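Work Package 4 report. The design task specified in the project plan requires that, given a folded chain encoded as structure tokens, an amino acid be chosen for each position. We show below one input record used in the internal validation round.
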């Protein structure tokens, strides 16, 4: 994949994710979501979507910076819990053929209140 392809894929994904659109359309069928440092691992578009929906239920995602490569993207973000607690985190995305194939999340604190 070319860098511009990854950029377009991720721009569309972030737009859908942050506006509560159909962000899961950007996932491959066998996407894997891992919350590093925990035993949380989800495989498949529906499982990934369900996990993200659970996160949306307890707070708001704010993307601060993004970095792109030909087959990877990184987001520096903050999760603002409904109780006002701010949890900085980062996500590394694997991207292939215009789809996100993996997300590896690194949270600095608990997401759940």
């Amino acid at each position: 994949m070319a860098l511009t392809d990854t950029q377009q894929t991720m721009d569309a994904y972030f737009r859908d994710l942050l506006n509560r659109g159909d962000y899961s359309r950007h996932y491959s069928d066998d996407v894997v979501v891992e919350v590093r440092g925990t035993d949380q691992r989800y495989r498949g578009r529906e499982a990934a979507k369900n996990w993200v929906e659970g996160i949306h239920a307890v707070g708001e995602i704010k993307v601060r910076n993004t970095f792109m490569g030909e087959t990877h993207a990184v987001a520096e973000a903050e999760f603002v819990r409904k109780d006002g607690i701010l949890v900085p985190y980062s996500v590394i995305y694997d991207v292939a053929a215009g789809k996100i194939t993996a997300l590896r999340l690194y949270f600095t604190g608990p997401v759940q209140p």
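The helical segments are 3-18, 45-58. Validation will be extended to a larger panel in the next phase.
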